[in-house]
Task: inverse folding
């Protein structure tokens, strides 16, 4: 499939030309880092005074712009495999990310502060997120509902595009390679007095490869986005931030064989003509005002997420849905300093409405419109004592017009000794409201929703230790975590019809395990990043699906003097795991086993001049054959190369 996304393609082609109208005089690289001193904006409700990673008692990983570039990240879900506690299941139409054994819809996903999960599906498709030229990713593990409300049971992932003040200038890349793939990205950003801006576009188009066992149909994919981000300071104590983003994906997919008499019943098979189109519009407007010499800040934010999904067969549309999230927030933050003691108190109110509708054209589905309103009231206190100690506590009350009102909490603490040892701990609770399909979904003779569902609830804690060496150039750490999920929503098959329907479990599910990491910077040339996760996840005493017990990654990078060229090798291990297969004509699932696998990537780049560089990479160097989801195969070895320009 070679249908390009016109808006994203135009942005990628025209932005570099338009950029010459105004160029920042001295472009500087992004200053974000992925070490323990990185500034984290996701770990606290108020972004007025963000915390350093070593001031947060919970687990946080920051993937900075340099990391994304050196590993030549194109689809953001790929680099998330390098984060402790993260499991990725990649298939066309729904790439899922699970944190610490929680469900995929238990992760809150933000892009530049906007909640981007599909209000209808209840989760975000990470396969649609193509990496911009300069961006960073923050991953917080553990229950965060006391700060963000519903969805943040497993944690929060935020994708952040850098501002024009953080990374001014013009940049762009274009590459081509295996499977008829073309990837482009362009960005223009700058500063003019009190105003900064960043306009960027991405486009990834590919003819694809087969994803059915023994299949021959290549699955094409066109994904892209255009985004704008700007900050204006009309006065020294006032700021106005605006974010707008449009994303579109058109991609082929294959269905499962639905013929009970077929030998491949329940397996993915070539389905000519089947494809989907997903579109999303996101927007945010935020105003901040500092009073009392900057000690007291008021912030007012409005945001919108509007999503549309449509599926097509060979000749007609076969399914569809729409979702919209409207959210307004008010935050008031008071900062009090007493010598080395720094107090910060934040009070916030969130008013949110989610609307969704099934637009299925077949007549075999409920197509009415539904909505849920929620008001969240948050109180958060943060304390730092010099460079050594930090403590935080949050409490949230959610008032919902459909579900029972919920109270969630989070406490965390961190202490660093002069020896470079840091101990930390956190505990909290989370909540996830049922989604539209779980409540009202209907498929004739196969599935019926349950309007009586209750929200899922989770409680958990973690404790970790870290040690730095060589003046902070080497950092190692390990964390033990333990979570329990109650009222888990699962699929049951009640007699006498045995039609699938969701219900709340009366038993608890448990997830516990260990995360470990190593970050080393040896001189100016060598960089080593390693991560390992052991997970024991059980649902009603049975192993959870698509959650490997063992996940690991190692990235080894080397840069030549004066950064003239470099090489990065990445190895990613995904342990064997269970999955469910609907290969029985009764539609009762059968448990199957997915084998473990290792993916090897090799990346390299060389600077031709101050402004131009060549790069190339080999993905799946060892040509591993693997499945993240039963009977969905993945591409083999692939080679890509391209050029990058920066002014």
Result:
């Amino acid at each position: 499939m070679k249908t390009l996304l016109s808006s994203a393609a135009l942005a990628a082609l025209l932005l570099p030309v338009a950029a010459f109208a105004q160029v920042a005089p001295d472009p500087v690289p992004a200053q974000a880092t992925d070490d323990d001193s990185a500034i984290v904006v996701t770990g606290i409700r108020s972004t007025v005074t963000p915390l350093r990673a070593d001031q947060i008692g919970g687990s946080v990983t920051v993937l900075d712009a340099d990391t994304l570039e050196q590993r030549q990240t194109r689809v953001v879900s790929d680099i998330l495999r390098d984060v402790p506690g993260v499991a990725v299941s990649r298939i066309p139409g729904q790439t899922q990310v699970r944190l610490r054994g929680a469900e995929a819809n238990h992760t809150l996903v933000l892009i530049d502060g906007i909640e981007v999960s599909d209000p209808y599906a209840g989760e975000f498709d990470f396969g649609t997120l193509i990496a911009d030229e300069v961006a960073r990713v923050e991953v917080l593990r553990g229950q965060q509902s006391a700060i963000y409300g519903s969805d943040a049971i497993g944690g929060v992932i935020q994708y952040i595009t850098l501002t024009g003040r953080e990374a001014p200038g013009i940049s762009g890349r274009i590459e081509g390679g295996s499977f008829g793939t073309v990837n482009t990205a362009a960005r223009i950003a700058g500063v003019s007095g009190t105003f900064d801006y960043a306009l960027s576009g991405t486009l990834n188009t590919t003819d694809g490869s087969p994803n059915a066992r023994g299949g021959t149909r290549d699955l094409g994919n066109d994904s892209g986005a255009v985004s704008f981000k700007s900050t204006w300071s009309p006065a020294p104590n006032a700021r106005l931030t605006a974010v707008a983003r449009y994303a579109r994906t058109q991609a082929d997919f294959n269905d499962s064989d639905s013929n009970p008499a077929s030998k491949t019943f329940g397996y993915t098979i070539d389905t000519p003509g089947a494809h989907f189109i997903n579109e999303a519009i996101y927007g945010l407007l935020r105003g901040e005002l500092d009073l009392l010499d900057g000690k007291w800040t008021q912030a007012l934010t409005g945001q919108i997420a509007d999503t549309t999904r449509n599926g097509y067969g060979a000749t007609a549309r076969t399914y569809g849905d729409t979702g919209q999230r409207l959210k307004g927030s008010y935050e008031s933050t008071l900062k009090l300093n007493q010598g080395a003691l720094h107090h910060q108190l934040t009070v916030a109110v969130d008013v949110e409405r989610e609307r969704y509708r099934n637009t299925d054209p077949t007549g075999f589905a409920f197509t009415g419109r539904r909505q849920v309103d929620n008001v969240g009231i948050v109180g958060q206190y943060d304390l730092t004592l010099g460079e050594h100690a930090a403590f935080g506590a949050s409490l949230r009350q959610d008032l919902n017009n459909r579900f029972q009102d919920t109270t969630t909490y989070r406490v965390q603490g961190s202490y660093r000794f002069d020896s470079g040892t840091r101990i930390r701990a956190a505990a909290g609770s989370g909540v996830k409201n049922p989604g539209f399909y779980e409540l009202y979904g209907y498929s004739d003779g196969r599935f019926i929703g349950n309007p009586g569902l209750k929200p899922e609830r989770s409680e958990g804690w973690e404790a970790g230790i870290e040690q730095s060496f060589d003046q902070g150039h080497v950092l190692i750490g390990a964390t033990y975590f333990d979570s329990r999920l109650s009222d888990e929503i699962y699929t049951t098959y009640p007699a006498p019809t045995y039609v699938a329907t969701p219900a709340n479990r009366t038993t608890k599910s448990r997830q516990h395990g260990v995360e470990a990491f190593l970050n080393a910077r040896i001189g100016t040339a060598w960089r080593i990043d390693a991560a390992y996760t052991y997970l024991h996840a059980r649902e009603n005493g049975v192993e959870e699906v698509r959650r490997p017990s063992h996940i690991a990654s190692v990235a080894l990078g080397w840069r030549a003097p004066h950064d003239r060229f470099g090489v990065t090798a990445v190895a990613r291990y995904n342990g064997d795991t269970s999955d469910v297969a609907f290969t029985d004509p009764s539609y009762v699932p059968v448990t199957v086993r997915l084998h473990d696998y290792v993916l090897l990537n090799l990346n390299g780049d060389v600077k031709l001049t101050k402004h131009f560089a060549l790069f190339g990479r080999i993905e799946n160097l060892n040509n591993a054959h693997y499945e993240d989801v039963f009977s969905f195969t993945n591409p083999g070895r692939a080679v890509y190369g391209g050029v990058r320009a920066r002014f």
